[in-house]
């Protein structure tokens, strides 16, 4: 098996004054890990985002979007917002690993943010996620947990633990 493709080997898909972003290659990921093929039915898009300014300990984040549609063979999606069709998840990445665009990444738990919303199609959901990633690399939205209120404004608080 070929070694994974690190972000350092690729030109960023998006660049801004405060960061860069690489779109994860789902086709290559599922080719590398064929047993994960069912999950590809729910994957809408994913980005590795470099935001050095957001936190002193980690500079890379994962911003992913999945469809909440029911897929035979998978457990039903957990819908926390009635009518939601998509979910965004933001994770800080383990600084001990160089992120890859075609392999599983090393995320830190817990998730920095998860939110659900309604989008008329996967394409519209992907567009909203790309716009959100652009906000990060332009310096207007931090992926760090200290700025969760800014994420709630965009995606709601349905996935946050209450109390």
Describe this structure in words.
- By secondary structure, the protein is of the alpha+beta class.
- It has one domain.
- The protein contains three helices and six strands.
- The chain has a six-stranded antiparallel β-sheet, covered by helices on one side.
- A hairpin with a 2-residue loop joins strand 1 (14-16) and strand 2.
- The longest helix has 16 residues, at 122-137.
- It is globular, with a radius of gyration of 15 Å.
- The protein starts with 13 loop residues before the first strand and ends in an 8-residue tail after the last helix.
- 33% of the residues are buried.
- The mean pLDDT is 92.
Can you tag this structure with a few keywords?
alpha+beta, 3 helices, 163 residues
Q: Indicate the low-confidence ranges by residue numbers.
A: none
With strands numbered from the N-terminus, the spatial order across the biggest sheet is 1-2-3-4-5-6
How big a fraction of the residues is strand? 15-25%
Number of helices: 3
- Helix-strand category: alpha+beta
pLDDT averaged over residues: 92
Please give the largest β-sheet: 6 strands, antiparallel
Radius of gyration: 15 Å
Give the overall shape: globular
Distance between the termini: 47 Å
Order of helices and strands: EEHEEEEHH
What percent of residues adopt helix (DSSP H or I)? Answer: 10-25%
Q: How many strand segments?
A: 6
Number of domains: 1
């Amino acid at each position: 098996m070929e070694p994974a493709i690190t972000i350092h080997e690729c030109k960023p898909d998006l660049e801004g004054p405060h960061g860069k972003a690489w779109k994860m290659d789902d086709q290559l990921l599922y080719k590398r890990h064929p047993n994960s093929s069912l999950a590809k039915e729910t994957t809408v898009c994913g980005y590795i985002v470099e935001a050095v300014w957001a936190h002193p300990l980690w500079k890379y984040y994962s911003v992913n979007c999945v469809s909440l549609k029911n897929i035979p063979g998978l457990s039903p999606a957990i819908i926390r917002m009635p009518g939601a069709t998509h979910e965004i998840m933001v994770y800080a990445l383990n600084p001990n690993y160089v992120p890859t665009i075609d392999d599983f990444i090393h995320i830190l738990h817990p998730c920095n943010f998860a939110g659900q919303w309604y989008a008329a199609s996967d394409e519209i959901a992907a567009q909203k996620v790309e716009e959100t990633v652009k906000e990060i690399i332009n310096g207007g939205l931090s992926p760090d947990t200290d700025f969760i209120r800014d994420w709630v404004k965009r995606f709601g608080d349905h996935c946050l633990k209450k109390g």
